[in-house]
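can u do me a favor
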């Protein structure tokens, strides 16, 4: 069993639950929409990093076999000064299923069967109003990304069923996210990618038209989101072309 060590979270990093925190949840993002309904915004170029054992350290690790990695499950947080018993609070386990990354024209969709999710991940045109779902109008050289999230309750594994290159945007934990912290990991498809709890990410971006991934993640599936357009007034331009 592979053990993948986390770097310590920066001071003030969010955990998704705090003592005395308002119990009201944030509104869920609208994941399915017509890109034409999004405004045209400036693009911030995300650096593309080839995924190696060294370059993914701190974010997670590369995985040879899905059963080689233990999915980290975070213990349910205490809400007062009394601590959660050490033999409880982390027993929900994980769920698994197939994550599909699918290009429809200029628009990239994701479907995660593990958590019954269906999403617009991004688009390839500079202006979302120009994105067609019928056929590509520009080369698929990038994904214009509108959203990031992290899971405070557990880690997540993406293992390619189709041995083709893919890209995953990531940033280290902390609620005070900046766009300069985001990198894109280019994976050659020979191994899977595991990310730690709290790592900012989005779906998996296939370099080809359609790609399938074995997905395994925490069953609680808590999600903390960042709408990039609303918070920063821009989108992230994530390159797809490898070395």
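np, heres the sequence
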């Amino acid at each position: 069993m592979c053990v993948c060590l986390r770097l310590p979270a920066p001071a003030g990093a969010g955990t998704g639950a705090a003592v005395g925190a308002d119990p009201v949840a944030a509104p869920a993002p609208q994941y399915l929409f017509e890109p034409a309904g999004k405004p045209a915004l400036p693009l911030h170029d995300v650096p593309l990093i080839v995924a190696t054992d060294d370059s993914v350290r701190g974010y997670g690790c590369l995985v040879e076999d899905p059963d080689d990695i233990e999915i980290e499950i975070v213990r349910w947080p205490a809400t007062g000064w009394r601590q959660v018993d050490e033999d409880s609070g982390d027993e929900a386990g994980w769920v698994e299923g197939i994550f599909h990354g699918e290009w429809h024209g200029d628009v990239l969709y994701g479907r995660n069967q593990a958590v019954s999710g269906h999403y617009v991940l991004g688009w390839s045109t500079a202006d979302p109003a120009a994105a067609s779902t019928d056929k590509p109008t520009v080369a698929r050289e990038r994904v214009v990304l509108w959203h990031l999230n992290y899971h405070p309750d557990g880690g997540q594994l993406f293992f390619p069923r189709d041995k083709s290159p893919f890209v995953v945007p990531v940033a280290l934990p902390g609620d005070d996210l900046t766009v300069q912290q985001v990198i894109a990991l280019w994976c050659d498809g020979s191994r899977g990618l595991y990310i730690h709890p709290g790592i900012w990410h989005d779906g998996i971006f296939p370099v080809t038209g359609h790609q399938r991934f074995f997905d395994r993640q925490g069953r609680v599936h808590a999600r903390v989101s960042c709408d990039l357009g609303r918070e920063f007034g821009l989108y992230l331009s994530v390159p797809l072309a490898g070395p």
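Confidence is low (pLDDT under 50) at residues 10-21. hope that helps!!
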